[in-house]
Polymerase
Amino acid sequence: MSKFALLFIGILLTGLGAALFYHGWAAFLLYEITYFMNPDDRWWSSQLPGISYSFWTAILMIAVLIKQYRELSQRSPWRSHPVFLWMVALLGSYYLAYFWALEEALHEQFTFIFLKLIVIVLVAYKLLDSEKALNGAIWAFLLGCTYVAYLATSLGRNAGARLEGISLPNAPDVNGVANALVPAGALLMYFAWMGSKKVRLLCFICGGLIANALVLFNSRGAFLGIVVSAGLYMLFMMFSRHRQKGQRGMAIVILVVGVSGGLYVTDAVFWERMSTLQNVESRDSGAGRVVFWMPL
């Protein structure tokens, strides 16, 4: 059996035991790791039972929530945040709009995807009831992104100017996979800014792999996302009134390392594709993403 298959089995059994006997938030971490490892689509999945692991880890989360609902509700009640009520109301409006939908099949498909998103958000809010749990969930996300980036780096470009063949449970193409990696940029900047030397080293390693993967995916949407999110957070790091002594200097170091690393991993193929962001010759190509923000 391959090492990745053994690793996944170990994570699955450990997460299951921790969710049932330690704390419910372990179920959410297991769901995150399973989502990014996505054994159903990996080459080593032939050595595992053919079940939908992402689905069953989601069921585990819901089961743990039901079991511990009364205890969790005392610390993190849904009613304390009106935004959850508005989320459910928005979902209801989508189902109501089904009666007037021009494409009923597509409307039903994407409304169901939105329903799953809301369920995951509500469950996560209940289970992640402490700072420790939240930090664990963030690091599970970052390590999951790093695993996907490792896969991308090991494969390299295999479809002309970009990499194909890596997917996630709800992202069958590389554009969706690349978009899933985008939030890791700002999160890694935060931990590199606030963490210890060991944490910073880990952040630089993860960040390097993720940046290289984004270049290989060659997704213009992901490029815009990482530039905007990382740029805005960099401004926060530089000019926030909440920064502590020495943090502005560290922000400058992170900026220099980040820009230098980004320039190092990019190549002419990447910049040639990014140069087509404003090309609106074809409305169906998605090449005019920034035109929406340009004045008429």
